[in-house]
Amino acid sequence: MLAQKAENTADKPKVTLHDQAKKSGGKFIMRYNILIPASSQFRTKAETHEDRHAYQWTTGMNVDLLQIADLMTHLSPLTDATQAGLQTKINNEFIAWYNAQIAIANNRRNAAEKDAYSVSDAIAPQYLYQNCGRFN
Ligand SMILES: [Zn+2]
To answer: Would you call 120 helix, strand, or coil by DSSP?
Structure first.
């Protein structure tokens, strides 16, 4: 049986990863939901903080992570004699890649929080204890 290339599999409609990447310009989409009423005095502060985290993933310090082009450098070389074998390799490689990307993000977590609090702490209401100083 002929070896099948991973990039051919990624083009099939079943692979939502590929569709998601196309919609988001080659990047996973980060979403958040703030459960604070719009009328609350804390809404803008929390929203600004979470917006800064979104910025970190779209433009800022984490923009290099979870890039589809990088993922494809891991998946494209994969080959196997069977469709099932190739799918297993793709699944395993994706999980390994994703976990490695998240590990990098976790290592940057304190810096990301410090950065986000440096923006949101300045917004009223000021807390007696601001959070930015916790993340050094
Ligand atoms: Zn945060």
So the answer is: helix
User: From ligand 1's centre to the CA of 28, what distance in Å?
Assistant: 19
Determine the distance separating the centroid of ligand 1 and the alpha carbon of 109, expressed in angstroms.
Answer: 9
Q: Cα separation of 111 and 134, whole Å?
A: 10
**Is residue 31 within 8 Å of 71, Cβ to Cβ?**
no
69 CB burial (10 A radius; 0-12, 13-18, 19+) = exposed
Determine the Cα–Cα distance for residues 20 and 130; give it in Å rounded to an integer.
37
pLDDT tens readout for residues 7-65: 444 444 343 444 455 555 665 666 778 899 999 999 999 999 999 999 999 899 999 99
For residue 133, how many other CB atoms are within 10 A of its CB? 10
* Ligand 1 midpoint to CA 46 (Å): 9
Burial class (CB in 10 A: 0-12, 13-18, 19+), 84: exposed
Q: CB of 37 within 8 A of CB of 68?
A: no
